[in-house]
Structures are given as C-alpha cells and as structure tokens.
Design goal:
The chain has about 210 residues and is mainly alpha-helical. Strands 1-2 form a two-stranded antiparallel sheet. The longest helix is centred in the first third of the chain and has 50 residues. The termini are far apart. The model has no long low-confidence stretch (mean pLDDT about 85).
C-alpha cells in the first residue's frame, strides 16, 4: 500500500510539474515515477515472498517518500539467518529484473533502459552496509555470528553512524540541490533509525 502522505506528495509533485513544465513533460515525469514505484514494490515483494518461504507472514508492504518497507510478523527476528536471506531477497529481485531487461534495453525498447537502471540502482543502494538498509541487516547477521545479536547490532550501528555522516557530508558538498537534499535526508534517516535501534539493544545489554 502507498501511505496517504506519500500519495499526497506524489500528486502534489505531478501537479506542480504540470503547472511549470506542461503536459508532455508531466507525462514523462509520471512515467518515471511509475517506474520508480514498480522497482520499489518489486523489491519489497521480494522480501515478502522470501519471508513466506521462511514461514513468516508479512503484515503489509508500505511505500514511503524514502522508499518502502515490508512489515514482517516475527519475534526474535534480528540477526538470524532468515533475516539475512530475506534482506538479500529485495536486491536480488531488482538485479534479476535489471538482468532480464538488458536485451530489451539493448534493442531500444521504450523505457526499458530507465527501468533497468532504476532496478540496478535500487539494488545497489539497498546493499550499502548501513542499518536499516538491507546491507546493514545482512552485516548485522554476519557480525551476530561472531559477537552475538546484541553486540553485532551495536557494532553495525556504529558503522552505520559513520556511513550516515559520510552521506550527509557528501550531500552538503555535492554541488547539486536535488542530490544534496536526497543525500542529507538519507543520511539523517539512517542515523535516526540506527540511534533508535542502538538504544533498544543497549537496554537489552545492560538490563
């Protein structure tokens, strides 16, 4: 499902684009937005179907302004092998779609090149080893095998803090308003999520 705020934001963006750029450009923009949504939904469904294979139900798939998430109904899920493979499933689906689109993009089938690039980009972005991205969850599992789930999570959060700082710094000095804004928002998102997870596991460690 697409959250109400996300839907309002999309409609506002399309309306704004129509006012300032005309119908033709707005149609192109709407197609681009649709391709992005398809890539994100495919990614999250990859998580959901893999979770089902491990015996977990997915409560819902939600699309947000920063991407999306599959809300998996599971207890004591953190740092398990299941979390590792479920996290990997999203990027795998995007890479698979990108791979299948290569011949169509090569022969110039309309929009397939953009969809191929978008899926590859979604996969690569989510493999960044920063919690709560898929790469961060996969890293936590690898660290959990050596240090246990609590310390593994705390170490992965420390790494994520460094990456969030790097992302914000990159955004501030990118020279591009759009890229800079997205980088700062992404860095802040990673930091806030990590800090929340860090506090939760610190309580588990010291109680």
């Amino acid at each position: 499902m697409i959250g109400a705020n996300t839907l309002r934001l999309l409609l506002f963006a399309v309306g704004l684009f129509l006012i300032f750029n005309g119908l033709s450009a707005t149609i192109s923009f709407s197609i681009l937005v649709s391709l992005i949504l398809f890539s994100i939904v495919a990614h999250e469904l990859g998580h959901a179907f893999c979770a089902r294979a491990f015996g977990y139900d997915t409560k819902r798939v939600v699309i947000t302004p920063l991407g999306g998430y599959a809300e998996i109904d599971a207890e004591e899920f953190e740092g398990t092998e299941a979390e590792y493979y479920i996290s990997a499933a999203g990027p795998f689906v995007n890479f698979a779609i990108a791979g299948m689109l290569i011949p169509f993009a090569f022969f110039g089938v309309e929009h397939t090149r953009y969809l191929m690039i978008l899926n590859a980009a979604v996969a690569v972005f989510n493999l960044i080893p920063a919690y709560p991205l898929d790469g961060g969850r996969m890293l936590r599992y690898l660290l959990t095998k050596k240090f246990g789930v609590v310390d593994g999570t705390l170490i992965s959060c420390k790494i994520s803090h460094v990456l969030s700082f790097f992302t914000v710094t990159l955004g501030l000095y990118s020279g591009s308003l759009i890229i800079g804004f997205l980088a700062v928002i992404t860095g802040a998102y990673i930091y806030l999520h990590c800090r929340s997870e860090e506090k939760r596991f610190e309580e588990r460690k010291y109680k």
